[in-house]
């Protein structure tokens, strides 16, 4: 794998990163970016709803979340896993794409088993000793991001598929939203600190920019990859925000002001 033809989207959940990677994937030439690093080796599954609330003992919150189910242990060696990830994320022209959330970085480091145990070392191990293009996707509106995350964790619906009953299961809970807001804010803080500490150059993309002009934003990344920006498609996903979620954001802001929740 030539790291000059690879990119890594660094983000936190509900930041708009799925819109970007789906747009890049739709070009057919910008890799097949997926969230390769979210799966626990002990279960081969992404974090389940109650795992996002580890350490929370509020029975009302826990009752709103599906119970965890066992999975299958991933028995691949590090080298086998690496080969599979590189193959799955590549298009025929050799471009690779992937997405990494900060909470997934320990999984990548553990998979790599490289000597220094650092994130930079693990990333370079993945790409044969070099850095990929780093793309930082973030969402400045923490309240909206946390509400979106709370809805998704409850419903287990992470993207719009024309499901008009998306919100049927979701219930507003200020402390549940606040818990996720703390996690998301911490992830963003850690990414920013890491970029500075490592001197990592990044393409910086904010949620508002991305949702306002998804085609233009995708074209920006294609140019950085020295690919044809004219291949940038119209937005392949619908926004999941609706009147109910906007109402919840307003309601959460008021609760946060009263109770000192993160905003």
UniProtKB/TrEMBL annotation:
SUPFAM superfamilies assigned: P-loop containing nucleoside triphosphate hydrolases
Entry keywords, A to Z: Carbohydrate metabolism, Transferase
Chemical reaction(s) catalysed: alpha,alpha-trehalose + 3'-phosphoadenylyl sulfate = 2-O-sulfo-alpha,alpha-trehalose + adenosine 3',5'-bisphosphate + H(+)
**Domain Sulphotransferase Stf0 intervals:** 6-255
**Pathway(s) per entry:** Glycolipid metabolism
**UniProt xrefs under InterPro entries:** P-loop_NTPase, Stf0, Sulfotransferase_Stf0_dom
Q: Tell me, in a sentence or two, what this protein's role is.
A: Catalyzes the sulfuryl group transfer from 3'-phosphoadenosine-5'-phosphosulfate (PAPS) to trehalose, leading to trehalose-2-sulfate (T2S).
Report the family membership: Belongs to the Stf0 sulfotransferase family.
Protein's UniProt name: Trehalose 2-sulfotransferase
Species per Swiss-Prot/TrEMBL record? Gordonia pseudamarae
